Structures are given as C-alpha cells and as structure tokens.
Amino acid sequence: MDPVEITEAGLTLRPWRPTDADDLHRACQDPEIQRWIDFPRPYRPQDAQRFIAGRTRQWAEGTAAAFAVCDAAAGRLLGTCDLQGIDQGRQLSEIGYWTAPWARGQGVAVRAVRALARWSFTELNLRRLLWNSPAGNYPARLVALRAGFRIEGRLRAADPARGSYEWFGSLLPGEVPAPDEIGPAGPGTLEARRAAVFGRPQPTIFASTPRRELRLRPLEERDLAALVITCQAPETLRWTTVPDPYDRSAAESFLIHCQDCWAGGTAANYVIADEQDHYAGSIDLRLSPTDPLLADVGFMTAPHARGRGYQTAALAALATWGFATLGLARIEWRANVGNLASRRVAERAGFTMEGTARGLLNHRGTRADAWIGALLAEDLATAGGAARGNGRPGRVTA
C-alpha cells in the first residue's frame, strides 16, 4: 500500500518521518498517554525511532496505515491516528489515536479520526471500523462518539493491569459527521457531562445528621473487615442478596467491582464514614443501562451504626449529588415487602412510596414482592434544594 497524505479541517495526516522522532519521544513522556497506551516504559528516544520504522514497514506490507497528525499550516506534530490490522477481505480495521499534550483542547483527535474514517471508507473500501479502549478512558470515548462511533458494549480486558473491562464500538460508512458538524456527545451534552464526572477520581460527598458530620468516600481496603461484619449480620442477609456466607474474598471482589463501576460510569459506590473516618455503612447509586436519566439506590448500615440517622443523611446527600452532578431525573428505591427499616430511611430522605410490585425481585432463588419509591429532581426543588426529613444536602470535594 502506497503512503498517502490526507488534508482536512486544518490538519494534515501524513506518514511518519524519521525527523518526527524527537517530538514523538517528547509527547510520549506525558502521563495520560502512558496511562492508556501500551508502549515501553520508560519511553526512550530509540523507542520512538523503532516506532517510526515499524509504521513505515507496515505501510509497505499493507497491514496498517499510520499517520502523524500535523497542523496543516505550520506542520507541527499534534498527535497520531492510524488504522491497525487492516483486513481487506473482511473490509474492516481498528482505529487508534492520541493527542500530544501541547495540542489538547482543540478537537485535534476528533477531526483526525473523522478524516481518516472518511478516507478508509472511500479509498480503502472498508465497511467497518472498530474501536476499543480500557474502561475509564473518557477522553478517548468522547472522541469516538464525536467521530460517529457507536459504543456497543464492553469486553473483559486481556490485560488486568489496564482494568477489568474494555469498551468497544464500531463505525459504518455514512455515519461520519461532516468536518464542521458538532456531532454527538458535544460540549454540554449528558454524555460529555458524565465523562467529566467519571473521568476524574471519585469525589467525597459530605452529609450531616443533627449531631454528626459524615463523609461518603470510595471503599478502601481498610474498610473490608468492617464490610465483612456488616454483610454477615442477620438483618443484612435477610434483606439483601450479598453472598452467604460472606468472607474476605467476597469483600475483595466487591472492592474491585466498585472500582470497575466508577471507571465504567455505571455506578457510584460509597462508604458512609463516621467522624473518625471508620466504616459505618455502604450506599450505591446505580445508573440504569436503558434510561440515562434513571438510577436506583441500595444501602446497608453497619450493626454498630444503626439507629443514628446516618443512612438517611447519606441517602439525601447522594441523591442531591446525583441530580445536580449526573443530571438524573428520577432515583428509585426498592426493598422487599416487610423491610421497614429501609423504608423508613427512604421516606425520611424524601422518597415517595408508589406501591407494591408483585414478584419484582429475585431474592435468593425465589421471587419476592417489593415496595417501590422514588425521588424526582423537582422534589428537591420543591423542598428548597434538599430532601425532606433529617438528611441534608451534601457538599462535594474531589
């Protein structure tokens, strides 16, 4: 395959040159590139030289089309965008890209991916482009979405060091936005808003009871012993579906699950920490996979911390955060009929009980009737910005 140049939207995509090695080496010292891209660490000048030589060879072999992304006017290196594993028989390839730290915030990757996608469909006659990235790489995800890719799911990661899951998606001819089109997931959209939240470390949320200041923070290894005690308590086993028996290995698996949920943007799992920063319970806000404005909550309180209003305050604070930060419209609460303690927490936090659903829940192998309640964003507005009851809206720190 003969090397080509593509010029579009103020960019020139051209084959790599030996003279790019210094800029390539400098760009690859960036922590964000090193975090998400699989290449030698430390990245040395000879690694940059080998990279360029390898990409030149792939052009000749027809197995890849690797481009240095440059400013069309000044010629300055801005990033890379390439097709790997070109399969002419199946008419597909995988796309990859990164932006140099000095070129970020200018839409370089979006423009480059759109240009390369158009070229691959018109000149190489490909019928599908594939994309994948470790879950949690929200800048790459937004680029893919803005270039027209449809995120179709997630796969178990082959390299656990890069996370437990990878996102994957595809792009077909006719789905690439025009060069001057904003396209999906643009600034201000819900997708961009969520990416800004889940793409950063999980924040701490503060909540208050009339007598105590509480912190909602991510689960840590030092909490696991208390988590095991909580999950072994008879009331926890009676009303939840935590594993029975519950041991240290179950707690360790749950810690990984919480980290995966935040990286994947599917849930915010929190520890309720008392004034000594000790574990007092857990609370989860889980986003619906089918309705982006809907979430549900689940919670449990450590035996030693029950009856102190901790859970009500935590639920009110987390719900307020979910509406204000994630743009939710509705948060649901469900519990087995008879779980009066959970119902009292939800009602005191402002949830309206909506009824009983027969056989809604699968509870340890049998179908169980469930109470259903909900809190709407407008409920907080009506209540003056806070849930009713003892809970107070939380403040947040990174």
Please render the helix and strand layout as text.
Blueprint: E1 6-8, E2 11-14, H1 21-27, H2 31-36, H3 45-61, E3 64-71, E4 77-87, E5 92-99, H4 108-122, E6 128-134, H5 138-146, E7 150-156, E8 165-171, H6 190-198, E9 204-208, E10 213-217, H7 224-232, H8 234-239, H9 248-264, E11 267-273, E12 279-287, E13 294-301, H10 310-326, E14 330-336, H11 340-348, E15 352-363, E16 366-376, H12 377-382, E17 395-397
Parallel strand pairs: 5-6, 13-14
Antiparallel strand pairs: 1-2, 2-3, 3-4, 4-5, 6-8, 7-8, 9-10, 9-17, 10-11, 11-12, 12-13, 14-16, 15-16
Structural summary, described in words:
The chain is an alpha+beta fold and 398 residues long. The chain has 2 domains: 6-189, Aminopeptidase (3-Layer(aba) Sandwich), CATH 3.40.630.30; 204-397, Aminopeptidase (3-Layer(aba) Sandwich). The protein has 12 helices and 17 strands. The chain has helices spanning 21-27, 31-36, 45-61, 108-122, 138-146, 190-198, 224-232, 234-239, 248-264, 310-326, 340-348, 377-382, and strands spanning 6-8, 11-14, 64-71, 77-87, 92-99, 128-134, 150-156, 165-171, 204-208, 213-217, 267-273, 279-287, 294-301, 330-336, 352-363, 366-376, 395-397. The strands form 2 sheets. The chain has a 9-stranded mixed β-sheet, with helices on both faces. The protein has an 8-stranded mixed β-sheet with strand order 1-2-3-4-5-6-8-7, with helices on both faces. Helix 1 crosses helix 3 (45-61), helix 5 runs antiparallel to helix 6 and helix 7 (224-232) packs across helix 9.
